Amino acid sequence: MKAESKQLCKWIKEAKRIVFFGGAGVSTESDIPDFRSSDGLYQQNKYPYPAEIMLSHDFFMAHTQAFYDYYFHEMIYPHALPNAAHKALAYLEESGKLSAIITQNIDGLHQKAGSKKVLELHGSVHRNRCMHCHAFYTLEEVYAQRGQIPRCRHCSSIIKPEVVLYGEGLDQDVWEAAVREIAQADLLIVGGTSLVVYPAAGLLRYFKGKHLVLINRDETSADHLAQLVIHEPIGKVLGEVAERLKAEHE
Fold first, then answer.
1. d(Cα 247, Cα 228) in Å, to the nearest integer?
2. Which residues belong to the annotated binding site for Zn(2+)?
3. How far apart, in whole angstroms, are the C-alpha atoms of residue 182 and residue 184?
4. Would you tell me how many other CB atoms lie within 10 Å of the CB of residue 89?
5. What structural domains does the chain harbor?
6. Which of 32, 62, 117, 140 is the most interior residue, by most CB within 10 Å?
7. In a 3-state reduction of DSSP, which class is residue 92?
């Protein structure tokens, strides 16, 4: 184990309240592409408009069929499984070390790994509602209607995913809960995020604790703020850390 990972293990053992804040890079090791890497969604040119347009509220309202064609092909990975990062975070929560996960991801893999306290800043593909009668639909129910616009079985109105599209605001209750968790943490681990998407990236300014750790494959604009920076795949790092902590606990 590298020195950086050993240091992270030490800080985790010393910490009283740990919060994890993550982005798309947490799920790339589950074969879900991110947005900004060389093979990410923003680099694709097989659609008539860029991802920021096709995943916007205005595009959803004006071109619902085209939105869903893109959404089902590029945003939904029904067979994706939690990777070592998701599992390690679930273990830290179960061990009483991790207070909360704050995620920009919409894939639900943290919950699938067993995490309970997950604050989803951008919503979830697993929650969908009729725009008229507000009936709830699972991802499986909506995905079964792929190839067409998903419609409510009660009133035939359009079903909309409870994900935050471009042009939409974040859920204020979720945002305020995330701010509280970060403000109360003594160890903040940030991973798998480029920290360029606002307002989410602005959460770091609420951290007043002892140690800020950044784990990301590439450099971020906040590297200089952290006491520890690890430029490696987050699943590899957190997986090794969790295994070491388990071994020491046994």
1. 23
2. 130, 133, 152, 155
3. 5
4. 29
5. 3-32+82-122+170-249 (3.40.50.1220)
6. 32
7. helix
Alpha-carbon span 24 to 105, nearest angstrom? 6
Residue ranges of the annotated binding site for NAD(+) are: 24, 28, 35-36, 104, 106-107, 122, 193-194, 216, 234
Q: Which long-range contacts (CB under 8 A, 24 or more apart) does 173-177 make?
A: 174/119, 174/120, 174/121, 175/121, 175/199, 177/100, 177/119
State CA 38 to chain mean position distance: 19
Q: Please tell me which residue in 73, 79, 86, 122 is annotated as part of the active site.
A: 122
Question: Which amino acid makes up residue 17?
Answer: R
Q: How far does CA 39 lie from the centroid of its chain?
A: 18
Q: What is the pLDDT of residue 143?
A: 97
Residue at token pair 């306290």:
117
Distance CA 201, CA 79 (A): 29
User: pLDDT (tens digit, 0 to 9) for every residue of the chain, 250 residues total?
Assistant: 689 999 999 999 999 999 999 999 999 999 998 866 656 576 667 888 988 999 999 999 999 999 999 999 999 999 999 999 999 999 999 999 999 999 999 999 999 999 999 999 999 999 999 999 999 999 999 999 999 999 999 999 999 999 999 999 999 999 999 999 999 999 999 999 988 878 888 999 999 999 999 999 989 889 999 999 999 999 999 999 999 999 987 6
Residues 91/20, Cβ–Cβ less than 8 Å:
no
122 classed as catalytic? yes
Kindly provide the residue ranges of all beta strands, DSSP E only, lying in the chain, ordered along the sequence: 18-22, 98-103, 118-120, 123-130, 136-137, 159-163, 187-191, 211-215, 228-230
